[in-house]
Amino acid sequence: MRVFTEVLLTPEPWMQDALCAQSDPEMFFPAPGATEAVARARKVCTRCDVRKECLAYALKNGETHGIWGGKTEKQRRAMPRARFCRTCGVSIDGAPVQVRYCPTHRVAARAASKRAYQERRAS
Ligand code: SF4
Ligand SMILES: [Zn+2]
Fold first, then answer.
1. Is the CB of residue 67 below 6 angstroms from any atom belonging to ligand 1?
2. How much is the pTM?
């Protein structure tokens, strides 16, 4: 993960503890098929305290390049798609597939959708 060199990346608190920031960040973007380089980067991740947060971030933001949370692009693609509340962004993994909001925002979302439906019908 190119935590501190990627300008487009919005810094998150966990990134301060990213072990890769103390190594060569390029190491986490090995060339395709460079199995030894991939293994080296993944080994660093096994010692990283923010591995879980890193992987969650990559899944949430659809990061398609590099090693994140010890997983390669291919491994991340094979993982079930992580799902998050559309309003606040908390994880809703494990909720039925039709659910798009966390319990806090579900009621408001349903009310808004009902209002929109009624407005459409009234016009
Ligand atoms: S898990 Fe790996 S890629 Fe993610 S912050 Fe830690 S060292 Fe970097
Ligand atoms: Zn929410």
1. yes
2. 0.66
What does pLDDT average to over the chain?
89
Cβ-in-10-Å burial (0-12, 13-18, 19+) of 54 comes to buried
Q: Is 70 in the pocket of ligand 1 (CB under 6 A)?
A: yes
Are 53 and 14 in contact by the 8 Å Cβ rule? The answer is yes
- Choosing from 48, 60, 63 the residue with most ligand 1 atoms within 8 A of its CB, the one to mutate for a pocket test is 48
- Ligand 1 pocket check for 56: Cβ under 6 Å: no
Residue 13 burial (CB count, 10 A): 8
